[in-house]
Design brief:
Elements: H1 2-22, H2 27-40, H3 46-65, H4 74-94, H5 104-127, H6 131-155, H7 170-175, H8 179-182, H9 205-213, H10 222-228
Length: 233
Amino acid sequence: MRGKLAAASAAVTVLAALFSGCGGDDSTIQSVSTTSTTATTSTVATDEFITAADARCAEANAAIANLSTDAAVSSTATQQQLNITKQTLAGLKALGAPEDPDGSLADFYSAMQDQIKVLKQQQAAITSGDTTTADALDAQLTQAQSDAETAASSFGLEECGQQGSSLPSDSTTSATPTTTSVAPATTTTPAPVTPAPVTPPATGGTGGTGGTGGSPTPPSTSGGSGNSGGIAP
């Protein structure tokens, strides 16, 4: 019993020393409390928040859109999407707390938390080889993304909650032949060559000479002698 009393007495002594060190002025304590409250509930203008938030979301959307869709690296892609979503949410909250009269910003944050939750479940399913469960979770992820888009739009955000666009791949472009490279070479058909007309030779003196050469030969009289040599019947 005496031991417990001694310990309690020592604790009171330590507390007394701490308070005595702070002094009797309460202004110091009030100053610390004010500083802590200001840091916790820092506010930011709505238009400034929207500009900064949309810039962050645009980068995150583009990064997610360009993740590989190859089934062989689906686990890595899911983990990367999870990391990007978590970092984006943390970055948005670090921008400050703008006025949220209808709670749409809070709904947007809640929808992002739902995405993080589903992505964690998908990552665990893929790691364990349960692709059926991982595929089934796609519907929940799509719903969470739709909720985020609706809430972000209600708050006035343009990029947050949207889907990014994938960049064109250089390898795909180079592998696709262009029309010019695969088109057959144009064959020029030569125009038909018409032979020049041949002018017939003149029929002047040469024709006369031909007439002379072609004069009939008088019949030979030796034919009768041949026939006479035969035996008359």
